Amino acid sequence: MDSSDYHCQTKRREFIKFTWVTATGLAFVPGAVFSKTAPEITPVPSRTTGHESLKKPGIGLQKSAIEIVLPDIIYAIAGDTIQLFYRGMIKAVNPYIYNIVVSCSKGKQYPRYFEYLPATDDTGTSSFKIEIKSDDGIVLGSKSCTIVTKNIVRSPSEKKHILCVGDSLTAGGIWCREASRRLTGTGGNPEGSGLANISFLGRKTGEGTGWEGNGGWTWSSYATAGREAYKFFVSAVSSPPSIGAVYINNGIKYTVSEVNLTAGKGYISALSSAPPLAREGLTKESGNGDESIIFSSFKADSGNPFWEADKGRLDFPKYVNKYMNGKCDVIYFLLTWNGQTEWKTDFSDVIATAKLLIDHIHANYPQCKIKIMGIQVPSISGGMGANYGATGKGYADTFGMVVTALNMNRAYQDWCNEPAYKSFLEYTDVASQFDSENNMPEADKQVNTRSAKTEKIGTNGVHPATEGYYQIADVVYRNFVANFCQ
Questions:
Q1: Domain ends where: 277, 301, 325?
Q2: Phi, psi (5° rounding) for residue 169?
Q3: Whether residue 253 sits in one domain with residue 199
Q4: For residue 417, what are the domain limits?
Q5: Which of 103, 136, 241, 290 can bridge 129 by disulfide, Cβ–Cβ 3.0-4.6 Å?
Q6: 407 plus 259 within the same structural domain
Q7: How far is CA 157 from CA 195, 365, 399, 478, in A?
């Protein structure tokens, strides 16, 4: 072997040594590896990792300010375990890369959530503070709220007529029925409280419970004349249509307003002025999605039930008289995942529209207590991509929509604190009590096309699994007991 071959092989061995040390993440990287045998790589001082710059103030991701979104008040009920999930309050792509520190005289801190099981003698208020710290202890974000612990003292002295209003998350009535069961039922898990004088009422009914929910609807849908829409039931969609995509049936256009699919099966709602021909499918004119969609059946979505068409104005009393025995004491609004854009910060338009309806209700039912429920953080395991593709914007931008959800929740709290509303309007946070990492629909999928190993992948972006709907019901249960069972 001549000297040139020897030096060449020596360099190769040293470079391989460098690669192994770097890949294993060892803290010690010999300076000679960089400066002598791999001169094209920027030299790093001996016995360093090469990441010291990230520890300097103002440099690196861990030095950016992190916002935390919490409600003013969170209710806890004796005997009922409450969990507060960091993913639903911390505005960070990955909150777990930070040091999350909870300060509270009650409960316990765990890696993903705070847990508290109140005893009967825990009643009162407790400060809950959460801090986000960098690796070197710098506080990047901090937020506090009050946990109010209550016992179940008694059933309401007078019957409470309750209405739940929402979009597709409410359309099936799952969380409404479960909230009713937890309050008025017996047995089950969690065990029902067996309270009396509580009735959940509304136009849509099931299992002795009523509610009002319509897929694709927003505050505008309930505060104005509403819209004609049709729901198409499908079972073999490979590329879900995007919101706003236009399809044609018998020369009539249908604009997609909602997609609720799990593994290609479910329904697609679309706005239109006329019903389709059942024998024809939907053919795409514009937007993303399958070129053609075959539906097994369809049905018309109703117009706004709070609107009086003959008078051209809101008429909530007409709804109450027809579906709620003439009384409305409590309303829970869960709105909305529809009509959103990624990274939205200004919700003045949403609030202004919502006020049209809330003002009308309050004028007619001044004693009615209205609860504005924030929305949960969406699927972060692929559900947004499963439903909305990879357009790089809108609902396909998962974290962008996380930001939108948390920003809207904060706007709701600010609205409920306004002097003109705070006496009858209360913000009721869902996101902090909702486990988006585990209670959104998911399925087992191969980790790659060459492996038999599987992982859990989200299959729906914003519509929860049944367990997720139950968590929404838990929020209603705690709020109702704390406010009306004392």
A1: 301
A2: -70, -20
A3: no
A4: 160-224+304-484
A5: 103
A6: no
A7: 11, 19, 45, 18
